Amino acid sequence: MKNKELPLLISGTGESLNDIQHLTGFRAVSRVVLLKLENGEQHLVVPQAEYGRALKNARSSFVWTPEMLSVSSKNRNDIRKWISAMLAEKKIRQVHVMADFPHAYAMAIIKCGVSLDVISHSIVSSRSLKNPNEIRRISDSQQAAVIAMRSAISLIQRSKIDSDNTLKLGNHHLTAEYLRKFIARILVDHDCDGAGSIVACGQQTEAPHEQGYGVLKAYEPILMDIFPRHMTHGYWGDITRTVVKGRPSLELRRMYNAVRAAHDAAISTIKAGIQAKSVHKAVISEFKARGYETEMRDGLLTGVISCTGHGVGLSLHEDPIVGSDPVKLSCGNVLAIEPGLCYPGIGAVRIEDLVEVTSDGCKYIVPCERKFEL
C-alpha cells in the first residue's frame, strides 16, 4: 500500500545529511533538521554559526535557527528540542521518517504527541537520478581519480624487479603504503579526499575491502581501487584497475581477459529502461562462456563474489544496485560498473569505471585506458 502524503522529517548523520544536501543544496557539517511539507515547502533548522551559509546555499528553503524557534539557551545544542519546536511551529501532528531515524529523536517527538509513520523505502528516490550539475560534480571527483590512477600505474611501470621479485624505486622498495600516500597527495591537489584507497597485492586482493600493506611484488596482481570524495561539494568518484609488473601467469592473463570482456558486456548492455539484473546477467554469462563458474570451494565463495555495480553520487554506494534485483535503469543514473573474479591462491582481478545511463546506452563519466601487463 502506498503511504499517504505526510510531512517528511529528516535528521541524523550519514545518509540523512546526504538526503538534506540533495533536497536543499546545503552541505551540512553537523546535525541539522529538515521538514518538508506536503506542498513541497521546506524548512531547514541549522546552528546559529551556519545560518549565513545556509541562507546562501539552501535553495527554496526557509532557514531557521534554534533561537528563531524560541529554543531556550540551555537546550540550544539539543537536536530533539529543535525538532519539537519546528513541528510545533508548523502545527504538525504526524510525519514520515525513515527506518534509520535516530531512536532518541523519535521518542522525544512521540512524547510531544506527534506520531511517526516509519517507511522503509527511499524517501529521496530522486537521488539516483543525477541532473547535469550533479554529473559535473561527479566528473570532478572522477577526473581526480583517473589522474591518480594513471600516475600510480606509471609509478609501478617505472619500478624495477629485484632479485626476490619485490618492486623497487631507486634504492627503496615500493610498498602499498607509499603508493597509497602518493595517490592521496594527487587527490588532495585536485580538491579531493582519498582516504581509504586500496592498494593490495597478491593474495591480499582476495579480500574485497583489504586496504593492502607491505612491499609490492612482480608477477602478482596489484589491485588499486581509488574512490575520492570532493572536499567542496561532497560528490564521489570510483575507479579500479588491476595490473601486473612483469609477465603474468597464464591463469592471471585468462582471468584479466575474462574480466575485461565481462566489463565490455556490461557496458554494451546498459541503457535506460532495462533492468539492472540484465547487466549482471550479461556479466555472469560472459564469465561462464569463458569457463569461470561461481561456486563454494573449501567453504569460500569463488568466482564472482560481489554484484556487478552500484550507483554513485553523494554516497559512494547508493541506488541503483546492479545485481540480481529487478531494478529498472533510468537516464541520469550514474553507475560504477566493477565486474571481477576472485580465486584463492591466485588473487582477484577487477576493473571499474563510472558511466552515465542514457536513452540508448551509456557513456563514461571520465574515460581511462585499461592496462594490465606493465
Quick synopsis:
With 374 residues, the chain is α+β, with helices and mostly antiparallel strands.
What does this protein structure show overall?
By secondary structure, the protein is of the alpha+beta class. It has 2 domains: 8-123, Creatinase/prolidase N-terminal domain (Creatine Amidinohydrolase, Chain A, domain 1, 3-Layer(aba) Sandwich); 128-364, Creatinase/methionine aminopeptidase superfamily (Creatine Amidinohydrolase, Alpha-Beta Complex), CATH 3.90.230.10. It is built from 8 helices and 23 strands. It has a 5-stranded antiparallel β-sheet with strand order 18-17-19-22-23. Strands 1-2-3-4 form a 4-stranded mixed β-sheet, sandwiched between helices. It has a 3-stranded antiparallel β-sheet with strand order 7-8-9, with helices on one face. Helix 3 packs across helix 4 (103-111) and helix 7 (250-269) runs antiparallel to helix 8 (276-289). The N and C termini lie far apart (56 Å).
Count of spatially separate domains = 2
CATH architecture term of the largest domain = Alpha-Beta Complex
- What does the largest sheet look like? 5 strands, antiparallel
CATH class descriptor name of the largest domain: Alpha Beta
Which word captures the global form? Answer: elongated
Q: In angstroms, what is the radius of gyration?
A: 24 Å
Residues in helix, %: 25-40%
Total strand segments: 23
Write down the overall mean pLDDT.
94
Strand content: 15-25%
Q: Whole-Å distance between the termini? A: 56 Å
Low-confidence stretches: none
CATH superfamily of the largest domain: Creatinase/methionine aminopeptidase superfamily
Give the class from helix and strand content and strand pairing: alpha+beta
